[in-house]
Amino acid sequence: MIAVVEAIAAYAPWLLAVLGLLGAREAVLAVRAARERRVAAFGLERESATGRLIRSCVTLLLLAIIALGVRTVTTVVYPTLPVRLDNDPGNEPYAAPTIVAPLPPPVERFTPSPPATEAPPEIVTATPRG
Asked: Which of 61, 62, 69 is nearest to 4 (CA)?
């Protein structure tokens, strides 16, 4: 859980920027839906525009709640975490592991061939006459 809080705190500016862009997009969609609702000539068009408007407002609310959560984790939760004492180089949570011992020598894949055998002696027999 501490790693999740540290990751959110590390990427908070990027997360808030993405949430802000998504919020701006939803705000534009909400304004467009409100305009279409105002100029709708038929009831079905008005209902469709109202549905899009409500969907955009709910999405804006969810994005705002997520942004508030990211901000809370960054400003309230992250500063209260205990200081990690294992900040040695190579112990970062997202770093590649360091090699401590040299790699073992490659294993030689030698398969001995079977020993050569002598060819059996050729036996010559006379063909029967008959």
From this structure: 69
From the number of C-beta atoms within 10 Å of its C-beta (0-12, 13-18, 19+), residue 50 rates as: middle
Residue 28 confidence (pLDDT): 97
90 φ/ψ sector (left φ>0, alpha ψ -120 to 50, else beta): left
CA–CA distance, 29 with 121 (Å, rounded to integer): 95
Single-letter amino acid, residue 31: V
Convert the pLDDT of each residue in 14-41 to its tens digit: 999 999 999 999 999 999 999 999 999 9
Q: Is 42 left (phi over 0), alpha (psi -120 to 50) or beta?
A: beta
- The answer to whether the CB of 26 falls within 8 A of the CB of 56 is yes
Q: Please tell me the pTM assigned to this model.
A: 0.61
Residue with tokens 């467009």: 32
Q: What would the two tokens of residue 98 be?
A: 């360091």
How many residues would you count in the chain? Answer: 130
Distance CA 49, CA 12 (A): 34
d(CA 68, CA 74): 10
